[in-house]
């Protein structure tokens, strides 16, 4: 049996005091007071609201198997070194910046890093940049300023922020300001980021501003990945024209 309590979907109270809601009801007084379990519930809810799920395609990715085993050795060595003591890498605020051609394994390697962090119990937020920005936009739709700052806080607090496909979306000044705010906050707190992008530095500066790129550069080790699009190289098929 899981820890879920009778049908409510809420984890049972570890102290046996509340019904899983985080509040103890006092029927006679018709009041409720916060339960001892409430701080832990709040902490869990905070990280749960960030996306930390490895997408199905990349689940179970490993150094010992395809496709990683077929990737360039120098780049794999860097990722291996990063992952070997993932906790130390995260504590030091080190990051990785994977850039290069389409279909060369950037997202695969980034997911390998995120997966390793999750395996040792570190908090990770995984977003494509368009999704992350959409998430931020929703906090503006008809709700309070508070939920926006709360999201920004969580994105700053998480041990590893993994942003895929940076520069993939056409940016408005508002979007760029949000991205800058996130990157700058993590930069100041010395927290790790891992990003993937198809763009060279100059194009990236045009897309996401030089201030943001400059911070990412200092935070991250740059890992170039070039070559043919592995998505198009189907097994045994001719690769040339
Ligand atoms: N070097 C490689 N050898 C074999 N297969 C690979 C290699 N690199 C990537 N793949 C496979 O190609 C597909 C694309 O990989 P991935 O999503 O990591 O690429 P990407 O570099 O992030 O591409 P994009 O720039 O389009 O986001 C995946 O199915 C992956 O398993
Ligand atoms: Mg990718
Ligand atoms: Zn309780």
How would you portray this structure in words?
It contains nine helices and seven strands, in the order ββαααβαβααβαβααβ. The protein has 241 residues and is an alpha/beta fold. It has a single domain (52-225), classed as P-loop containing nucleotide triphosphate hydrolases (Rossmann fold, 3-Layer(aba) Sandwich). The strands form two sheets. The protein has a five-stranded parallel beta sheet, with helices on both faces. A two-stranded antiparallel sheet has the order 1-2. Strand 5 (160-164), helix 7 (173-189) and strand 6 form a beta-alpha-beta unit. Helix 6 packs across helix 7 (173-189), helix 7 (173-189) runs parallel beside helix 9 and helix 8 crosses helix 9. Bound molecules: adenosine-5'-triphosphate, magnesium ion and zinc ion (ZN). Adenosine-5'-triphosphate is lined by residues 67, 70-71, 102-108, 165, 196, 198, 230-231. Zinc ion (ZN) binds at residues 13, 15, 17-18, 22, 35, 37.
């Amino acid at each position: 049996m899981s820890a879920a309590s009778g049908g409510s979907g809420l984890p049972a109270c570890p102290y046996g005091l509340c019904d899983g809601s985080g509040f103890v009801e006092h029927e006679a007084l018709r009041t409720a007071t916060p339960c001892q379990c409430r701080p832990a519930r709040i902490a869990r809810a905070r990280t749960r609201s960030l996306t930390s799920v490895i997408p199905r395609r990349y689940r179970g990715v490993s150094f010992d198997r395809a496709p990683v085993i077929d990737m360039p050795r120098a780049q794999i060595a860097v990722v291996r070194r990063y992952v070997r003591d993932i906790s130390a890498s995260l504590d030091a605020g080190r990051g990785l910046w994977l850039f290069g051609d389409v279909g060369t394994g950037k997202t695969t390697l980034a997911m390998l890093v995120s997966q390793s962090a999750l395996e040792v119990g570190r908090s990770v937020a995984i977003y494509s940049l368009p999704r992350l920005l959409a998430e931020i936009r929703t906090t503006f739709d008809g709700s309070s300023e508070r939920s926006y700052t709360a999201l920004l806080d969580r994105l700053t607090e998480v041990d590893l922020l993994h942003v895929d496909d940076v520069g993939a979306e056409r940016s408005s000044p508002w979007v760029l300001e949000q991205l800058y705010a996130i990157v700058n906050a993590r930069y100041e707190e010395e927290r790790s980021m891992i990003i993937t992008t198809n763009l060279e530095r100059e194009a990236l500066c045009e897309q996401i501003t030089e201030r943001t790129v400059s911070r990412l550069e200092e935070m991250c080790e740059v890992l170039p990945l070039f070559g043919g699009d592995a998505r198009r190289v189907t097994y045994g098929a001719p690769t040339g024209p």
